[in-house]
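Journal club side-thread
Mid-discussion, someone asked how the predicted structure for our own chain would compare to the paper's figures. Pasting it here so we can look after the session.
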Amino acid sequence: MGYKKAEDVLPERILKLVQKYVDGEIIYIPRKGEKRSWGSETRLRDSLKERNVSIYKEYLHGKSTEELAESYYLSKKSIQRILREYTNLHRIDLNETIWRTQN
């Protein structure tokens, strides 16, 4: 993504209209067409998911939140958020399995 001067690319009447709303500020103008979700263009989303699964597995095998925070260079609160997310996912999967076996 590159920056361009609005005065170089917009007609004067449109520039004046934009200035009514955001005079002297930087704004982001999204691409037209299909919206892409965060991380869809890179492997960042996948690598974060892999990292979080590893954190959850290590927690299940007895590592403390303090140890995980230190080894992954994250805050204790970040580790707790990741663990909460995966615990909730696990609970949903378990509840669906129980429901299917009972019905």
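Post-session note: The radius of gyration is 23 Å.
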